[in-house]
């Protein structure tokens, strides 16, 4: 038909009829374009008829329908605008034709295609005619109809005109289809956005919401993947919070720095961005060019003018219904932006909700902690008993309603010995017992206060295994080496998770506790460290968290103060008790003294007349014998006087208490006390003191005041003997052979002159101008009353040694005291 | 004949002691105050003194001290209604401490002990 013009009108009418039919038919645009290609090829007896449409960039024409080329080439063959007949037709918007019999024509056609298509070159063999008609809509080129034939073609202007009008028809079809498609798409997008709006506002959980946004974004613009990133203020990074696709990438790149890669720029600038090929795009600097996706559409999530995150779509999937490009276009960007603006508000709201929930949870926890502190503190206020308070502290630490540790041990610092001594332990002794106790407790449903105030467990404590273990703990407080010492010295809590391998942990302690982990916190009362609270979760193996530890520390501070106050109270109580006893004794002795004084007064007044009465009666009795009545009367007088005298004796005897006040004392301490007393005098007189006090001497009963007096007397004598410059040696030692102790005082005072020596213990004997002369007499008397003795070793020219021996009396035997 | 000086402010006691001790064969001199006794110490030169503690003026303990300062070997028997002086260290300087009694046996025995 191309060579002849016969029937041309008839054919044209037929073609037009078909085209109108196609234009009004139902099938989608793709099918209709194929139908048109079929129609043109058939009617014009061509070899190939193809329809090309421009891509979204407008730089290329893509094969969209063909008859004559394999259908798999559809969408794959691309022709650059301006290249070849078809490219020129599209660019110049004019029908182009070429007829060339040379073999190079086919080759030049083939050159337009990528190399991959070389295998189909046979299809182009012998092609000599090519006509390309632009499909024009006003001045816009919507595509090109390409006709290829192996026959020669007569370029009849009428035919060209017809072909152009056919193309015009096709343009109508394409335009209509596009309008319908776009309307369709807009409608469905609107519907989706509407749905999203609804969904976003009905979702409360942030996580669900973020996933919904990802899902919706992908529905809206089908892509191979979608990342939703949110800005984290703390890390200053964009973190992927929800995603679909590219799991491996997400795993290795969970966060982006602001400004980095596409999303980084979007978040920084607050504007959307499309990147067609991230591998070559120079506007962005991704962490790596070797990415599993190539094209990216990213839009910011903006709240109150500042970006809070981004939504990124990766590698758009072509919509099957329309010959769309697999490239993101402005339309997609606008669409995603619309979604993002809705999503941003919802995200903000949800994260606000979530924060509120978090805050309220934190508040709840704080409130619970406060209530534990409050309840414990209240309960502790009910008692001043130290043990009871310790027990309350440990109960609060171990009970589920309290801090909920499995076991708790309390160790207190002994300042004198520098030892950390276990005081009390609370907790089950085995896993079985733990289970039983915990289930019992959960059944009882007692409040913390009720549990703390229970009296019974305190009694059970006495037989508890854990308490026994606790009491067996003794740790010397060294610097640095031991973790419990560190807790005390550094006043810091410690958490030990791998105790057996931790060199800081005392292994003896571990085997006693039989645990592999624990936490220790110092018990502080102000600046003072009272001890250590040690806890573990040996049975349920619940890890001890940082916040557990913090709360425990807070609790320990409070507990420390309570312990301190109980200690002070018990000290006060003890002191008070002692004072009371002393007062009682004082009152007693005052009473006795008063009684004695009165009795003595009465005795004096009565005794003298009784002596006269009785004395003279005895004289008279000698004048009468018993047979005479007078003798008997006198007898009665004498006996009655005797009886009165006996009564007086008893009364006076009562007031005559032994004045040895025996109590258990340390003789060395007594000596040390006295040496301090004389210290100034020793210095003033340049007297050197050697004290050799044996540590083996036990405490024994003696009258502290009187023995002190003895020592003062002897040392005073020695000092007076030395006068100035000399040595005083004081020795104490045990004499096991007669169960006594000896104290020797040796001076360098030149010894005692022989004439003096014999009188030395006589009362009122003195070589001095001052003093009573009773010193040594008194000394001997006191020592003898203690059942001891005193000896002198005298070395004329050198010095004298006084040796006191006192028996070690351990029990107060009342009879021995009395004279 | 041994000479005994009795120092007591109670007239009846002085009388009783004087009679009883004279019957025992001693020479007896009495004094009602320590001051009086102090004079007799040199004029009478007693071999033994029986001394009450509660005396008007100078008391027995002060007197004892003065006696012992002058005549350390002169035995002094403290004889008083107050047995609580026994605890007073000062009386340790005396040879004996006797609680006054209508039964003079203890006193007489002590005198014998020191005037052998």
UniProtKB/TrEMBL annotation, chain A:
List the catalysed reactions.
Answer: ATP + protein L-histidine = ADP + protein N-phospho-L-histidine
- What GO molecular function terms would the record report? ATP binding; phosphorelay sensor kinase activity
Which top EC class is given?
transferase
Q: What keywords does the record list, in alphabetical order?
A: ATP-binding, Kinase, Nucleotide-binding, Phosphoprotein, Transferase, Two-component regulatory system
Residue intervals passing through the bilayer: none
**Superkingdom field:** Bacteria
State whether keyword Phosphoprotein applies.
Answer: yes
| E.C. number(s) listed in UniProt | 2.7.13.3
Ligase listed as a keyword: no
Q: Where is the Histidine kinase domain?
A: 601-810
PANTHER family xref list: PEROXIDE STRESS-ACTIVATED HISTIDINE KINASE MAK3, SENSOR HISTIDINE KINASE
Name of the protein described by the UniProt record: histidine kinase
- UniProt source species: Candidatus Schekmanbacteria bacterium RBG_16_38_10
From TrEMBL, chain B:
One GO molecular-function entry: phosphorelay response regulator activity
User: What InterPro entries does the record point to?
Assistant: CheY-like_superfamily, Sig_transdc_resp-reg_receiver, WalR-like
List the CDD domains hit by this protein, alphabetically. REC_TrrA-like
Keyword annotations? DNA-binding, Phosphoprotein, Transcription, Transcription regulation, Two-component regulatory system
Instruction: Please list the coiled coil stretches.
Output: none
| Cross-referenced PROSITE patterns | RESPONSE_REGULATORY (PS50110)
Q: Which Gene3D superfamilies does this one have?
A: 3.40.50.2300
Phosphoprotein keyword on record: yes
- 4-aspartylphosphate is found on 52
Q: Name one Pfam family in it.
A: Response_reg
Q: Does the keyword Transcription apply?
A: yes
**Response regulatory domain sequence ranges:** 3-115
Q: Which SUPFAM superfamilies match?
A: CheY-like (SSF52172)
Name the Gene Ontology biological process terms.
Answer: regulation of DNA-templated transcription
Its Gene Ontology cellular component terms are: cytosol; protein-DNA complex
Protein's recorded name: Two-component system response regulator
